[in-house]
Amino acid sequence: xxxxxxxxxxxxxxxxxxxxxxxxxxxxxxxxxxxxxxxxxxxxxxxxxxxxxxxxxxxxxxxxxxxxxxxxxxxxxxxxxxxxxxxxxxxxxxxxxxxxxxxxxxxxxxxxxxxxxxxxxxxxxxxxxxxxxxxxxxxxxxxxxxxxxxxxxxxxxxxxxxxxxxxxxxxxxxxxxxxxxxxxxxxxxxxxxxxxxxxxxxxxxxxxxxxxxxxxxxxxxxxxxxxxxxxxxxxxxxxxxxxxxxxxxxxxxxxxxxxxxxxxxxxxxxxxxxxxxxxxxxxxxxxxxxxxxxxxxxxxx
Length: 301
Known about the structure:
The chain has 13 helices and 4 strands. It has helices at 23-30, 46-58, 87-93, 95-100, 123-133, 145-171, 175-195, 212-232, 243-253, 256-259, 265-270, 273-276, 283-298; strands at residues 37-41, 63-66, 108-113, 116-121. The protein has a 4-stranded mixed β-sheet. It is 51% helix and 7% strand. With 301 residues, the chain is an alpha+beta fold. The longest helix is centred in the middle third of the chain and has 27 residues, at 145-171. The chain starts with 22 loop residues before the first helix and ends with a helix.
């Protein structure tokens, strides 16, 4: 197993000279000081970015702890792979992280006060925890019971439906399967768009209030825009997204909390290469691969 680290910043051994840093890399540097709140994060992970955005939106001081859960391959650009480290290797490299995240998956959050540590993992529960744990003027959940329930329903819809269709398209090597997944993606985006408040009330899911639902989708939409377009020609600026979704994205992409978590475009695209060739062996990749195999069997291929 290589002792060389995957590229993180300009000047690192595996960082190509043509790559440029973005806001996210600078924020990672700034958030390297000790704080009682620790975010265990991976810059490339959309689920982890959800928690990162929530902390930035709430204005919570935190320490950013980078976790690379994957093997490093010096023959790959940036050293990036989607081949996970064994759990025991993760425990050896990141003992505090494993104490916080039993399965060794990002994101995870630890808040320590008076020697007592509160630990939370999984992206959507972390967002709700951050919102309730840190009292600020910014609220990430709606106030009414029905809207709070709807926020959870539609955040789950993003995870279970929208991004799943996207990753199926990204990982399927059959052009016909890719097209079917793309059509499913369009339908899921349209369904999500139909559930949004009218644009006249504001650009976000609930209108003028930026919430859990917007945070749930934002990291994935960035990947639809950059990674999906690069590897599969996905066009969420055109035919593959609704006008309502495009208006939503314009507002979200201009929000400082989102911009502060955005890493360089070229390295984000490069980090998904093994997903695009269906060579990833991460837990998530294996789940998509299993679904693809079942579909092919049912179709007689």
